[in-house]
Amino acid sequence: MPVRTPQQQRSRATQARLLEATVECLVERGWSGTTTTVVAARAGVSRGAQLHHYPTKASLVMAAVGHLAERRAEEIRTEAALLPAGTQRLDRLIDMLAAAFTGPLFVAALELWVAARTDAELRAALVPLEAKVGREMHRLTVDLLGADERTPGVREAVQATLDLLRGLGVANLLSDDSHRRTALLAAWKRQLATVLASGR
Amino acid sequence: MPVRTPQQQRSRATQARLLEATVECLVERGWSGTTTTVVAARAGVSRGAQLHHYPTKASLVMAAVGHLAERRAEEIRTEAALLPAGTQRLDRLIDMLAAAFTGPLFVAALELWVAARTDAELRAALVPLEAKVGREMHRLTVDLLGADERTPGVREAVQATLDLLRGLGVANLLSDDSHRRTALLAAWKRQLATVLASGR
């Protein structure tokens, strides 16, 4: 870890608080209810410090999505490292990913995607960031599943898993869909295991 | 068809214009940019007539979602009736459904789902409506695929197909995802065909 001055450490802590507060604010109030003023107040950061680190709402939310996607990926890696090998590993991994797609970061990201649809500036910034986040999520999933993408159908099955989880995340937005999701994913895990095993 | 007076016919035509304009407005401007004034102007309907038929924004968008979900289902049924029987029928049906999940009605509905997440009144109205629309879409898909839900795994496979398509619809929001979607769905169709055939 690089050596940081106390000032740099304070700056990073301030940034982290602002980014966490941004996601909380998007989850609670949505895109239209999220303002830099509200975020600064929630983070307990002065307006001046907020403007210094993230001068615009767009810069704040972009940084928040990037930061939290990284943190989420790290959490998934850490949790996955604790899973025992064996037949239940795939099931547990899918459950972990499903939790990520129904959690606060997914909800915050969805707020941004929908807002960016009708906001050209936000969209221009978000599209490359989301492409990167999407590629990294795909790579992470392939790694965790130990999937061999050279086997026909495996790449598509991993992609379908993530797209299915995105769809399930949206289905869970307005009401608790966990009962239906659990039954559906139980069936999908069996199919996915079959596809992944086909090249082994 | 019931006999209608000219006045009733005019009313229905006015309502249909308002509902179409509502969806167009949601697609172009999003939830926050959609107002009853803008919708009335776009539909070429007087403010008084708009207020008479749909006094609030919420009543307008609810009616629009219900009306257009029905129209969409009818279109899918009509198109599906023209498909030849045989091995390509399933593929064509999935393509039709994928088109529905990337089209204007899906985008308009997504605007509402996300807005309803942080708007208690809208949410209370939307949740039962969406549950009904979802059940009808599931039923329609089962019928069109000729799926036998008594066969183990079939019900979950049909649900997973619709959830996957919802996820693919979101993936297509900000940029054209059709290339990736086509490859992914080609693999999905083969898997779905296997599951559906397992009980036959």
TrEMBL record, chains A, B:
Where in the sequence is the signal peptide annotated?
none
Record protein name field:
TetR family transcriptional regulator
Give the DNA-binding residue ranges: 35-54
- Organism domain of life: Bacteria
HTH tetR-type domain mapped to chain residues: 12-72
Keyword terms of this UniProt record: DNA-binding
Extract the Gene3D superfamilies matched here: Tetracycline Repressor, domain 2
GO molecular function terms noted in the UniProt entry: DNA-binding transcription factor activity; transcription cis-regulatory region binding
